Amino acid sequence: MLPSCSSGSSVQKRSRVHHIANKTMKKQLHMCALSAVRHDPELKIYYERKANEGKNKMLVLNNVRNKLVLRVCAVIKRQKPYQKRVA
Q1: Which of 12, 24, 60, 81 is most buried, taking the most CB atoms under 10 A from its CB?
Q2: CA-CA distance, 50 to 24, in Å (whole number)?
Q3: From the CB of residue 36, how many other CB atoms can be counted at a distance below 10 Å?
Q4: Which residues contact 51 (CB under 8 A, 6 or more apart)?
Q5: Which helix (H) or strand (E) holds 67?
Q6: Residue 34 falls within a domain, yes or no?
Q7: Is residue 53 part of a domain?
Q8: Does residue 85 sit within a domain?
Q9: pLDDT digit of tens for each residue in the chain (87 aa)?
Q10: Cα dihedral: 68, 66, 47, 71 (round 10)
């Protein structure tokens, strides 16, 4: 049995993208998240707040990517354009 490379105190290998993953889509989504953090006020505040809490910036960026995917899925499911919430 091969040793696990994802847990424990002696992790020596970097994590990698799974071979089944669509790397082009992942790269595009990453670029979208970077752009959203710069231009979308709601996501910019979220990113800065989490980064100031001491979270890893790549972890926060991954959260932003997830938020973008959830927005896209909601638009497709509801068949309505995205509208920002006004609090």
Answers
A1: 60
A2: 27
A3: 20
A4: 57, 60
A5: helix 57-78
A6: yes
A7: yes
A8: no
A9: 455 556 666 667 777 888 898 999 999 999 999 999 999 999 999 999 999 999 999 999 999 999 999 999 999 999 999 888 776
A10: 30
